[in-house]
Specification:
heterodimer; A: 114 residues; mainly beta; six-stranded mixed sheet; 0% helix; B: 116 residues; seven-stranded mixed sheet
């Protein structure tokens, strides 16, 4: 019963273009969402987050959109750079739950071609 | 850099042996988490500490697994009588639990366990 799903295991994009990563969740109790980037042999690195009271959050080249009615979020990277090549995980949490543990999707591998 | 550190980075052990991993969180963070990641999957929650108290354990954490966080600082994760299915990356994360960014967890580099 995967509560957070990333249906695209991989994505290839040209340098300078937009990368769009998608994530769906099933548990309506989730109200805080995060994106992490992971390089090989390193732990996940926090990128950007969004609370369910918002539908958009922007930080530099990264923008996260949340559609609560569709239980869907997406991460836009504009413009994409070769250093963005990594595996991206979306994660969900419940603010009022003790500890706010994260439930992760399976990841999307992004390759940015020069 | 005072990020989350984990030791060892790699551990190879034979089935049936015990192993122990250590995590040193970011110093001012009072929450500490352990996750496990297998190939091609996202990290899965194992357990979490608020200061020195272990407040939640996943059903993934069988009785062969034990975690401690004495004095609310570093944490150890011990696996007894290892099995080949325990082979995975074990990730530690910490968070503040308060302030402007209470929910963001910061991860260490992980300990890769291989059970032969």
């Amino acid at each position: 019963d995967q509560q957070v799903k990333q249906n695209s295991p991989s994505l290839s994009v040209q340098e300078g273009r937009i990368s769009i990563l998608n994530c769906d969740y099933t548990n309506s109790m989730f109200d805080y969402f995060l994106w992490y980037k992971k390089y090989p042999a390193e732990g996940p690195t926090f990128l950007i987050s969004i609370s369910s009271i918002k539908d958009k959050n922007e930080d530099g080249r990264f923008t996260v959109f949340l559609n609560k009615s569709a239980k869907h979020l997406s991460l836009h990277i504009v413009p994409s750079q070769p250093g963005d090549s990594a595996v991206y995980f979306c994660a969900a949490s419940m603010i009022k739950a003790a500890g706010n543990k994260l439930t992760f999707g399976g990841g999307t591998r992004v390759l940015v071609k020069p | 850099d005072t990020g989350v550190s984990q030791n060892p980075r790699h551990k190879i052990t034979k089935r049936g042996q015990n192993v122990t991993f250590r995590c040193d969180p970011i110093s001012e963070h009072n929450r500490l988490y352990w996750y496990r990641q297998t190939l091609g999957q996202g990290p899965e929650f194992l357990t979490y500490f608020q200061n020195e108290a272990q407040l939640e354990k996943s059903r993934l954490l069988s009785d062969r697994f034990s975690a401690e966080r004495p004095k609310g600082s570093f944490s150890t994760l011990e696996i007894q009588r290892t099995e080949q299915g325990d082979s995975a990356m074990y990730l530690c994360a910490s968070s503040l639990g308060q302030g402007p960014y209470p929910y963001e967890q910061y991860f260490g580099p992980g300990t890769r366990l291989t059970v032969t």
